Amino acid sequence: MNTSTKNFFLRTTILLGIISSTFAGDFNTARIDELTGLKGKMNEKEGVYKVTFPRSEVKVVVDGWTMPPFMGLGTWAAFTATKDGAMVMGDTVLFEDEVNAAMTAALDNGLNVTALHNHFFFDKPKVFFMHIEGEGSVDQLANAVRKVYDAVKKVRSENSQPKDSFGGSALPDKNSISAEPLNKIFGAQGDTKDGMVKFTFGRPATMHGVKIDNTMGVNTWAAFAGADDNAVVDGDFAVTEDELQAVLKSLVKQKIYIVAIHQHMTHEQPRIMFFHYWGRGRAKELAENVKSAFFIAGLQEVSSPLQ
Question: Which of 158, 188, 214 is the last residue of a domain?
């Protein structure tokens, strides 16, 4: 490496250090504490301020062992300065009956929900982890994080122990979904079996230079069971990263529960995120709610009834 190149890298390093110090100097960590209601800790080396708290109010047993929160039951949010304000990333420990409230609060307050999954097997009650991300001012982000935490606290204040069901009326023992009204809504012929109906729509992608589509697993689907006036829908959406937040918002707004957000593949193009959902209600209303999200998910061809 010649002298001019060394000097260039030296000047660049110094400049980045100055910029980083400027950001850190304007980074109001006391405001984060005030708005989140938590006392955080600064990692000076990384320039990251992190708030955290343990989910200790509910006893969690994993494989017969009572798990201390230190072993992985801590909710956290980490803030770092950016040229336009700040970025937050975090992981929120949730029980099943808290997920919908927490996700709604995050999406309604400008945060992105980037993953929802489990970390354990044989856990009682079941524990889920919702990852969040956002960019904006410190006040905006800290307020949004607080809204998520408050939504969780509200659920637990109403019932100290997590619920073991969504509630609502029991589904009939025999399925009797009418396929034709749903066919018209989706503009496609659904597959039927024993009174149930399922629709599947693929989207092309590539992985390792190989074309993949519907049958290889890159698909969005919706399956209906129960009765026309007392039905359940469950399914999976295959969406790009840019589509994910808008589709989540569409379904959550219609009171469709999101039960998982994750990836199924690696090195695919475009990158595909998958999320699974569950809803209860009248079959036609559920179908309309799911279809409305199909447009956002790049399935615009599902746009008109069958002729």
Answer: 158
- Residue 19 in any domain: the answer is no
Do 116 and 185 lie in one domain? The reply is no
DSSP 164: S
Instruction: Enumerate the β-bridge partners of residue 262.
Output: 274
Residue 6 is assigned to a structural domain of this protein:
no
- Number of domains, the chain: 2
Which alpha helices (H) appear in 159-238, and where do they start and end?
A: 179-186
Q: Above 90 in pLDDT, residue 265?
A: yes
CA-based torsion, 221, 255, 37, 59: positive or negative = negative
Residues 138 and 200 placed together within one structural domain of the fold? no
Pair 198, 114 in one domain: no
Give the structural domain span for 79: 27-158
65 to 68, 71, 291: CA distances (angstroms)? 9, 12, 43
Three-state DSSP class for 149?
Answer: helix
DSSP annotation of 256 reads P
Q: Is 99 left (phi over 0), alpha (psi -120 to 50) or beta?
A: alpha
Q: What is the CA radius of gyration of the chain?
A: 23
- Helical packing angle, 138-158 and 99-108, nearest 10°: 160
Task: Name beta bridge partners: 65.
Answer: 62
**Among 24, 43, 148, 28, residue whose Cα is nearest residue 98:** 148
The residues, ordered by sequence, that sit 6+ positions from 280 with a Cβ below 8 Å of its Cβ are 166, 168, 231, 232, 233, 286
Q: Report the predicted TM-score, pTM, of the whole model to 2 decimal places.
A: 0.87
pLDDT (tens digit, 9 = 90+) per residue, 276-300? 999 999 999 999 999 999 888 766 4
